[in-house]
Design a protein that fits this description.
Blueprint lengths: L1 E6 L1 H12 L16 E10 L8 H5 L5 E2 L8 E2 L9 H5 L5 E10 L7 E8 L6 E8 L10 H4 L5 E4 L1 H6 L14 E4 L9 H5 L5 E7 L6 E5 L9 H5 L5 E4 L2 E4 L9 H5 L5 E5 H4 L1
């Protein structure tokens, strides 16, 4: 997804003027000039096709995602998100994306303010269904389970379907009654059926592979001022200051922006692996 649009400078000037009314020295002659400008911010967003599996909620290391249910999709609380990208890599249907929001202005050309929204590609960790089973003694077909299954593996079928495909269950099947069926060849182990079903009649055994880190945290010990902001704000306690040096536990580090965004001297920097080579 790539989107770009312009904002007329006249409109931007008016917005700034409206903000200026809060200034103590405000007067009618207030003017401003914008120099060359570029700002890049990242936003992690969940698309409307969320299947409500809540796997993103389970893996978020800072609990910044509100759970989904049959009525609403999961929601990222942007003010608490640390941009570690783990949820993006984990979503089984890739409906969570990193959007780079770029704003730039060329003063020499005196052009409009330009905005660009670009989806940044990320690797995806392995999500695999090992086994899934239905307890037909306790099943409940109420809810929107088939609606949220992304592959169509979960369906509701009549007795004839079970007979045609020789599917054996441990209860007698009645006529004109729908029963849940899961096609294991189609199931990807997302867990949407487990979360959205009413009752506890689906058992899922799945494998979730390791997070694929594409960035490394570089530490410049020479310019570090030992302010302890990195240690105090690290959500996984991966950074410690010991004997005047920053010590990183690489196994705990989730490559978020909490330390890099707070370091007052730029001693910490996330670098892409290809740039680091």
């Amino acid at each position: 997804m790539d989107i770009s649009f312009n904002k007329k400078m006249e409109s931007l000037e008016y917005d700034v003027y409206l903000k200026s009314v809060d200034l103590e020295d405000n007067n009618d002659d207030f003017k401003f000039e914008i120099d060359d400008f570029q700002s890049v911010q990242e936003l992690i967003a969940i698309a409307p096709d969320c299947v409500r599996c809540n796997l993103c909620v389970d893996v978020c290391p800072v609990n910044a995602i509100d759970e989904a249910n049959i009525f609403k999709i999961a929601k990222i609380r942007q003010d608490e998100c640390v941009k570690c990208e783990i949820c993006v890599q984990t979503c089984p249907i890739s409906c969570i994306a990193i959007i780079e929001n770029t704003a730039e202005f060329n003063a020499e050309e005196n052009d409009d303010m330009k905005y660009f929204l670009t989806e940044r590609k990320t690797p995806h960790r392995i999500i695999r269904m090992n086994d899934i089973a239905i307890d037909y003694n306790n099943f409940n077909i109420e809810g929107d389970v088939p609606k949220f299954c992304p592959t169509g593996a979960y369906t509701l079928e009549f007795k004839e379907y079970f007979e045609d495909y020789n599917i054996e269950v441990d209860i007698p099947l009645e006529e004109d009654t729908l029963y849940p069926v899961i096609d294991k060849k189609l199931c990807v182990g997302c867990g949407a059926c487990v979360i959205t079903s009413i009752g506890d009649f689906i058992t899922l055994d799945r494998y979730v592979g390791p997070v694929i880190f594409v960035k490394n945290l570089e530490i410049n010990q020479d310019i570090c001022v030992n302010c302890y902001l990195c240690e105090e704000n690290c959500p996984t306690e991966a950074i410690k200051l010991e004997d005047g040096e920053v010590v990183l536990d690489d196994d705990k580090c989730i490559r978020c922006i909490e330390c890099t965004s707070r370091c007052p001297v730029g001693a910490l920097m996330l670098v892409n692996e290809e740039e680091d080579e």
